[in-house]
Amino acid sequence: MGIYVNGIEQSETTKLKDYAFAKSGVAPTLAAGVAVPAGVDAAWNLSSAYATVCASAVISSAFQITGIIAEAFSTSGMYEIVIYEGNEVGSTEVARSRTYGSTLAPMNNNFIPICSPSLAAGKAIRAKVGASSTGGSVTISVAYKVA
Q1: Is 16 a member of any domain?
Q2: Calpha distance 55→87 (Å, rounded)
């Protein structure tokens, strides 16, 4: 019989503690976020091209994306932000969230908590955006925890 703390077997508690105190980071680091345009042909269409938020080989350990930081919005409205891992060809969607963005403070930036699956070291992070109106864009960066 195992040792339980608050109904969780001790080994699981250790995993949670290790995750809670794992190294965290943001990408891009010490730089402005990446502007990701929304689809231009109609509302709620994703942009046709991927925007690279973090190039491959930048994060050198396995990691999990824990949030999207929306730094600026070009127009006020609803935005759906989709995060992908891998190269542009064969990228896999790992997270999707929606937020309201405004060009006016204090609604002109926000943190969107997400929980991606664990991603392999060295994977690129890319994004596409859809918006409630055409022609908008959102500048983003991502927060992550090293596994």
Answers
A1: no
A2: 9
Domain holding 137: CATH number?
A: 2.60.120
Q: Assess contact for 43 and 134: CB atoms under 8 A.
A: yes
**CA-atom Rg of the chain in angstroms:** 17
Residue 8, domain member (yes or no): no
CA neighbor of 114 nearest in space, from 63, 67, 62: 67
As for how many domains the chain has, the answer is 1
What's the pLDDT tens digit per position in 60-85? 999 999 999 999 999 999 999 999 99
In terms of residue numbers, what domain contains 73? 23-146
Q: 20-70: per-residue pLDDT in tens?
A: 777 889 999 999 999 999 988 888 999 989 999 999 989 999 999 999 999
Residue with tokens 């309201």: 100
Q: Where residue 88 falls among pLDDT bands split at 50, 70, 90?
A: confident
